[in-house]
Amino acid sequence: MKDLPAVALPLLQLKRHVLLERLPGMAAAVLLLLLAIGAASPLAAQEMPRVQVFGGYSYTRFDTPSFGFANTTGLNGYTFSPAYNIMRGFGVMAELSGQYKTGANLRDVAGGPQFLYARGNMLFSAHLLFGEARSLVQVGGPQEDSARVVSFGGGLDYSISPRFAVRAFQVDYVHTALFNTTQDNLRFSTGLVYRWGTIKKTHRTLAPNP
Amino acid sequence: MRLIKQTGWVGVALALAWLTGCGGSSSSDDTTASSAGGNAYVAVPEANAVASYRVSSGSGNLKAVLGSPFSGGTSPISIAVHPSGKFVYTANQGGGDVSLYTVNSNTGALTEVLPRTVSGLNPTSLALSSGGDLLFVANQTSNTISAFTVSSSNGTLTEAAGSPFATGSRPVALTLSPSGKFLYVASANLPQVFGYTVTSGTGALQVIPGSPFTVGNGPTSLAITPSEHFLYVTNFIDNTVSGLSIDPTSGVLTEALDSPFVTGTGPIAVTVDPMGRYLYVTNIGSNNVSAYTIDATTGATTALTSPFAAGTRPVSATVDPAGAFLYVCNQSSKNITKFQINQETGGLPSNTISATTNLAPQAIVFAK
């Protein structure tokens, strides 16, 4: 809290008093903790994380009409992706993702470059991944296939502390070549990002006039 | 460093542009029509199965659904789809029975409902009423017609009172008039077509006075115009197609003006477009399709500049419900040819291989 403006401290103390008076003790404590984390200095502007590990919920709109279904199929699951940023704005990431529904699933493992742009507490990202996808669909018996996957997408992380960010959203176009045809799938993800290490922006200093 | 970042963002922008900038131009043609889409089913006797396809709206291309073909009875040789689209039926030549399949509307998959319904020996052709309440099966070895009522809720078959009904020697094909009033049966051993009136609701058959009616030698297939005015019969041995007018009250057949009409070699199947304008005959001996316009008054046919080349051993033909395309099952080629129908002339100006079935397709039907 050492970097907060002076006026913020009394306000924070006032909020703490109100919460303790009006809410159950445990809930108040949780709220205070979140407030402290949010008020704490987030990842300072212009700094990028060296390592990111994202884990969260994913929803995929599976392009099942590509192999004869009348409608697309919604799948729910997870995405886990670690990334290592080699320099400011550029790194590599891997992805392990799986979405499921009774009678169908879609899973993939992929990797590739990612590009980053930081602005204030927000970190924008874009990536292009290549890998393998697998799917099992129950139609007249189990139909299973594996094929290449190309995934292109991006997201927005919002810093809530030096170590954590909330990935507000990540949207991916996931192109697969399963079941002797191709699919244009869409995936939405959200969750938590754990970060460590920073890549600071280097500042050029002018040589003094002779 | 900056170059890498810039290159990366340029790549992102290009990819976005590619994703959003899709689409091409298409030109419209007043002489062509578009498919309404939907589902199609193909009997594949060698696989003891039925293949299920999605029909692309517009282009009419066939795309096999995942899991197709779906196993069923032994040697399904004739196929029909219930007007609700929920059920598919096949006459199983090798099993002496009829299979009922339920259709999964989302996946397009077919699931056979067991046990199968016993018909006569060597069932070769079946016809379903336009209302989906009656099903008739020609039993080639038994020389009978089996009649069934159809449950609207689950598609199951119940044999009609009095069934099976005796008919001519070796009935190979039958067709039901659109109104359901008349049933006509081609007898392969005789140059004759047997006619019956159908009792609505029960499926009982009564012989039409004057039946059987004389046609050419080796009748193999029948088709009725949507107006119910004319019946056409392929005469396999004579290489002709007979045209007959139908008395709307009695169902009596009278040979049409200038009938019979010359076809290619080995005319084995005949079909009429949904508007009753054009007639198509597949010639299994000459591997082509003969096309004709139909005179709405006399039933006489006029041959177009045809025949149109098909695959090897074209065994059946069906026009899609929109009247846009003619689909021909080619036994030896093991594929299905799709012909674009010229809406002004009935000609078949272009064709593509719409589906490869790996095993010989026998017949194709479309859900409306």
| General form of chain B | globular
Uncertain regions spanning at least 5 consecutive residues of chain B: 19-28
Strand element count of chain B: 33
Mean pLDDT of chain A: 84
**CATH uppermost class of the largest domain in chain A:** Mainly Beta
What is the top-level CATH class of chain B? Mainly Beta
Sheet/helix structural class of chain A: mainly beta
How far do the termini of chain B sit from each other?
61 Å
Unreliable segments of chain A (pLDDT under 50, ≥5 consecutive)? 1-8, 33-45
CATH topology of chain B: Methylamine Dehydrogenase, Chain H
The number of helical runs of chain A is 2
Determine the fraction of residues in helical runs of chain B and give it as a percent range.
Answer: under 10%
Radius of gyration of chain B: 22 Å
* The CATH homology group name of chain B: YVTN repeat-like/Quinoprotein amine dehydrogenase
Strand content of chain A: over 45%
Terminal residue distance of chain A: 42 Å
Largest sheet composition of chain A: 8 strands, antiparallel, barrel
Just name the CATH architecture of chain B. 7 Propeller
CATH architectural category of the largest domain in chain A: Beta Barrel
What is the domain total for the residues of chain A?
2
How would you describe what is shown here?
The complex is a heterodimer of chains A (210) and B (368). Chain A has 210 residues and is mainly beta. Chain A has 2 domains: 8-39; 48-198, Porin. Chain A is built from 2 helices and 8 strands, in the order ααββββββββ. In chain A, strands 1-2-3-4-5-6-7-8 form an 8-stranded antiparallel beta barrel. In chain A, α1 (8-22) runs antiparallel to α2 (25-39). The longest helix of chain A is centred in the N-terminal third of the chain and has 15 residues, at 8-22. Chain A is elongated, with a radius of gyration of 22 Å. The two termini of chain A are 42 Å apart. Chain B is mostly beta strands and 368 residues long. Chain B has a single domain, classed as YVTN repeat-like/Quinoprotein amine dehydrogenase (Methylamine Dehydrogenase, Chain H, 7 Propeller). In chain B, 5% of the residues lie in helices and 47% in strands. Chain B has 1 helix and 33 strands. Chain B has one helix at 2-20; strands spanning 38-44, 49-55, 62-64, 70-71, 76-81, 87-92, 97-103, 110-118, 123-128, 134-139, 144-150, 157-159, 165-166, 171-176, 182-187, 192-198, 205-207, 213-214, 219-224, 230-235, 240-246, 253-255, 261-262, 267-272, 278-283, 288-294, 301-303, 308-309, 314-319, 325-330, 335-340, 350-356, 363-366. Chain B is globular. Chain B starts with a helix and ends with a strand. Classes of the chains: A mainly beta (210), B mainly beta (368). Chains A and B meet through β5 and β6 of A and α1 and β2 of B.
